[in-house]
Amino acid sequence: MNKLHDVTIGSLEELLNLIRKKAFLLLEYYKMYNQPFNIIDSVDNEMLHACMYNTMCTGSGGSGWDTLDKGESKGSDRCQSRKCLDCKAKVMFFLDVCPECNSGNLKDIADSRWGISSTSHLKYQGQLKSYRLTLVEPEENNFSCKKFRLRVWSIDADNEHLMAYAEGQNKQKSKGINFMPLSESFYMSKPCLHLDAILPIRGKVKINYFDPENNVPVDLPKKYSRTTEEVMQAKTWGKDRGNVTRRK
Fold it and tell me: Between the N and C ends of the chain, which has fewer C-beta atoms within 10 Å?
């Protein structure tokens, strides 16, 4: 894959390099204070998508469209804090030992998801253009990782599978869809890849693929053969994420 969008590729490279520099500039302080780390936060993610699609951010703060072209930006960063199996503390991704008990017995966590409101999805059906889904993953799932893969897909807001998911979720107590990257429902929602790049801690960003007009969905993995109806019938619908608990 080597197609580049000639109109905005220069500004996109420049923006990604600035986002990368800003993120890693404070990395040592995040490590010092054991603070969870995201390479691309929600504000930068909206700006990235505005750049990709030649539009503007709205500054809505969650009360309107993320971009003027009626796109909705979602981000998932897999540089997640690990869990110390000895004292149960959370340990930020770039530390190799727990800062609370000095244990190296750490469990990897990779469950970051895109949050979609089923209520808003149904309310704005026919108005919302698409979901722009960003995923950042470490090339190596260890504290010394130096390169990170960035991908952005677009999913049509009127996609039949996503619509069925929203309708089912909206009947539950929790109205939030915990949309898992690279899951069965993700692939069945026909995501179209628009950006694939490598973000290094040092050095320039490398864009391997960029086509914001690509409308060919990624292939559905062979391991997924169920129909939308079968997937929805099998769902447990889960619990409302975000409940706060404290370690004893």
Answer: C
